[in-house]
């Protein structure tokens, strides 16, 4: 009986979000790495993309390649984000997709003792706050402003108004020594995913979050090959760095699968980070 209800109780054919040239997307941190890979996948389906980033050179080049628009945006500044959305919407129309990849990291211990003179100092609070402002508040700022815009649209045939994907990190769950601020910021992104999805559920906007492990992004591009190899070897399987296109594939799954909502998912090859 339960099976017949589960499988046969809905007469309307279930549909997932169809991606085509009628849909537009905003990708923060879209000029490189995870954001760029996701922008490429979206553009390949015909989606009109707008890239928010601080790197003008890379952003303009990728936007030109994808037939999209680049917006120089600092996610910590209200006016900058407002101007970015205004430029993106003027070019592409109101977005139905938001992918938040803008983020930064640092490595500072809560307290440290100098090896030279034994002096003690604590984590500078302005440095802690800056990570929170970019990774957590910056993500929420873009979510709130994008959602407000999405509410002006009619729902699609499937009932969806839009879909959002946020980027946290495995550090949200197993942060390493020196990652207090970074882990706090990414843990905040994970923690707000479900309540935001609930806030927006009546409006047909879905919200999910990816927790990437060790990925081959510009952050690691400058590292020596032996360091990159050692990092890859730490991953149970496959024993290598994650590829940005693998992040993009999961982001696309979250965007296109209507029943995917309010969830956070690790994408990490099975790694659990050691203390250092």
Q: Notable features of this structure?
A:
single chain; 276 residues; alpha/beta; Rossmann fold; 7-stranded parallel sheet; two-stranded antiparallel sheet; 45% helix; globular
Tertiary shape: globular
Helix-strand pattern? HEHEHEHEEEHEHHEHHHE
Annotation, overall tally of beta strands: 9
Biggest β-sheet: count, sense, barrel?
7 strands, parallel
Distance between the termini: 53 Å
Rg from C-alpha positions?
20 Å
Mean pLDDT: 94
Give the spatial strand order of the biggest sheet: 3-2-1-4-7-8-9
Describe the structure.
With 276 residues, the protein is of the alpha/beta class. It has a single domain, classed as NAD(P)-binding Rossmann-like Domain (Rossmann fold, 3-Layer(aba) Sandwich), CATH 3.40.50. The strands form 2 sheets. A 7-stranded parallel β-sheet has the order 3-2-1-4-7-8-9, with helices on both faces. Strands 5-6 form a two-stranded antiparallel sheet. Helix 2 crosses helix 10 and helix 5 runs parallel beside helix 7. The mean pLDDT is 94.
